[in-house]
Amino acid sequence: MAKSIRILIAIATWYEYEIWHMDVKMSFLSGFIEEKIIMDQPKGFTSIGEEHNVSSLQKSIYDLKQAFQSWNMHFDEVIWGYDFIKNVHDPCLYKKFSGRSVAYHVLNVDDILLIENDVKC
CA-to-CA distance for 52 and 54, rounded, in angstroms? Predict the structure, then answer.
């Protein structure tokens, strides 16, 4: 992954492409969970007489083992809708070619690196 990023930055520098970095603040809260997960209520959120109630999660939360996978699958579904192609050797690298326009998106945990040559403001 680090090698892919270095190569893309070198290409972007050589061809004078635009480079942006995005930090997705709520990334791990946007994915849906495939399996059934039950959790105890957090301390301080229980009512008297309801201390043994549990919650069934429908979306991922922070510190959940499945949170990264859920976010990655959600990102993958959305980016495919914009005709991006996932790289065979680096599954966190997406590319799109349209005529003379080139765009690369690199997903690294909750950060996205955007590299493009044809920016329409």
Answer: 7
102 Cβ neighbours under 8 A, 6+ residues apart: 17, 95, 96, 116, 117, 118
List, in sequence order, every residue forming a beta bridge with 110; answer none if it has no partner.
Answer: none
What is the rounded average pLDDT of the residues 70-95? 87
- Segment (H or E) for 16: none
Note the pTM of the prediction, 2 decimals: 0.69
Q: Domain limits of the chain?
A: 2-27+64-116
Which residues on neighbouring strands pair with residue 94, listed in sequence order?
86, 105
Residue among 107, 114, 121, 120 nearest 20 (CA): 114
Please give the full DSSP string across 41-100, using - where no structure is assigned: PPTT-PPTT-TT-EEEEEE--TT-TTHHHHHHHHHHHHHHTTT-EE-SS-TTEEEEEETT
The tens digit of pLDDT for each residue in 15-65 reads: 999 999 988 776 666 566 677 777 777 777 777 777 778 877 776 666 676
- Residue 112 has a pLDDT of 87
